[in-house]
Amino acid sequence: MTEIKALMFDVFGTVVDWRSGVAREAETMLAPKGYAMDWPTFASAWRKLYVPAMADVIQGRRPFVVLDQLHRETLMQVLAERGIADLSEAEIYDLTRAWHRLDPWPDVIDGLTRLKARYALATLSNGNIALIVNMAKRAGLPWDVVLGSEFARAFKPMNEAYDRAARALDLKPAECLMVAAHADDLRAAAGRGYKTAYVHRPMEFGPHHADRGWPADRFDIAVENFSALADRLGA
Amino acid sequence: MTEIKALMFDVFGTVVDWRSGVAREAETMLAPKGYAMDWPTFASAWRKLYVPAMADVIQGRRPFVVLDQLHRETLMQVLAERGIADLSEAEIYDLTRAWHRLDPWPDVIDGLTRLKARYALATLSNGNIALIVNMAKRAGLPWDVVLGSEFARAFKPMNEAYDRAARALDLKPAECLMVAAHADDLRAAAGRGYKTAYVHRPMEFGPHHADRGWPADRFDIAVENFSALADRLGA
Fold first, then answer.
1. Which chain B residues touch A170 with a CB distance below 8 Å?
2. Best exposed site among A114, A192, B63, B190 by fewest CB in 10 Å?
3. Please, what CATH class does the domain formed by A6-17+102-232 belong to?
4. Are A132 and A114 in contact (CB under 8 A)?
5. Which fold has domain B18-100?
6. A6-17+102-232 and A18-100, same CATH topology
């Protein structure tokens, strides 16, 4: 690990708890209008449309668009499926940006603060720049640089997302450590020459999924949280 | 100024004192090899080749390349003009990156720290991402996001450099304040709808230019330094 110079972070699920945050934002807007439902399930339903929404871009059927745009399109689907048709344009815009207002897991600020003294901290998320910047300002996430989909004009797991991030920092891929709670992201990063750190986030998909185990893959590092990651990296 | 949401900073000359820093780095490498010269003049000669080096990209005769690459090419010119031909590849690489190791003017950290609590702080420099990130890590510059030439694939004063930076933050140009010590940069930003803040840096080009006056343009703000900018913006 001595050659690592930059840490590249997945964000949704790895850094922030999207499920609780989106649930809270949806409830805040929709409950006063008389809607009642299980809000975390609403959040999960919205999130479930994320991969298919990206597929058209990844498979070349559609030019690159920012994640805010995909979130808006998938929000319209989730609302329609629930018979919610009375939101104003301003409300749709605001609820789409629920993803800008997510809270980090409790260990994140401690870990990042320690790691920042020793490494460049980059986001390598499929979120767009405004989203990542607004989230960081609100939550106090101390990123050094925002890379990822909007910079690369490519979503993970496309090769360009990883390749262009390393190149932007003038680093070899082996000098970059991809940090993620998702094995598929780490496998793709490893395929481009990155080192890999798995962080276990059992609550990402809620209590019903809390007992899913650790992936069988052998990543370079596998830890419980960001404080443990800082320990492992001597930060 | 109440609608301002993000501050976009020019970097060389506005945030950091490139002339003293490049002079120091050149002297550190070349003096032990027996070269003697006026090092600030060496720095100014290198800097003077920057605008012509960008011109081929700006005028479409050459695809976009990062500033590190232009700095390398112009360094080779400056060295050749002085009969310096004994640097190794590693030394050329290291001296090219003198621009990554520049110190901020004395008011910068105070001003940025105060402004960061209230605004998104973006770099909108012609420097490439690795350069801006390495400089920030070394000097403690608290940027929220690195935009500018490598993100836009366009150098200032090309329209795309300003347009794409505002769009990346999902802001209207009038919500962005361009902060620079150079009237031409501010005029170009104003032409794209930005608000403008001129910062007077009389020592940028050294003591012989220290008495150049303030520009006649009427910018939205004109201040002596970043602490005064924070005062003006209520930060």
1. 68, 128, 130
2. B63
3. alpha beta
4. no
5. DNA polymerase; domain 1 (1.10.150)
6. no
Which positions ≥6 away from A48 have C-beta within 8 Å? none
Tell me what ipTM this predicted complex has: 0.95
Determine the Cα–Cα distance for residues B157 and B64; give it in Å rounded to an integer: 14
Kindly indicate the confidence band of residue B7, based on its pLDDT and cuts at 50, 70 and 90. very high
Tens digit of each residue's pLDDT (9 = 90 or more) over B146-162? 999 999 999 999 999 99
Rounded-to-integer distance, Cα B219 and Cα B188, Å = 12
Q: Which residues of chain A lie closer than 8 angstroms to B128, CB-CB?
A: 168, 170
Distance from CA of A145 to the nearest CA of B (A): 6
| Cβ-based burial of A207 (10 A; exposed 0-12, middle 13-18, buried ≥19) | exposed
CA of A130 vs chain B CAs: smallest distance (Å)? 4
Per-residue pLDDT tens for B53-84? Answer: 999 999 999 999 999 999 999 999 999 999 99
Which residues make beta-bridge pairs with A145? A122
Q: Where are the alpha helices (DSSP H) in B140-177?
A: 149-152, 159-168
Cis status of the peptide bond prior to A157, with omega within 30 of 0? yes
Cβ-Cβ contacts under 8 Å between A and B: the total is 47
Q: Are strands B195-199 and A176-180 parallel, antiparallel or unpaired?
A: unpaired
Q: Which residues of B touch A144 (CB under 8 A)?
A: 133, 136-137, 143
CA angle B7/B230/A146 to nearest 5° reads 30
Domain ranges within chain A, ordered by starting residue = 6-17+102-232, 18-100
Nearest to A146 among B137, B145, B170 (CB): B145
- The reply to whether the predicted model has a pTM over 0.95 is yes
**What distances in angstroms separate CA B113 from CA B6, B19, B118, B125, one per listed residue?**
14, 24, 10, 19
B145 CB neighbours in chain A (<8 A) are 129, 132-133, 145-146
Q: Transcribe B169-192 into DSSP letters.
A: TT--GGGEEEEES-HHHHHHHHHT
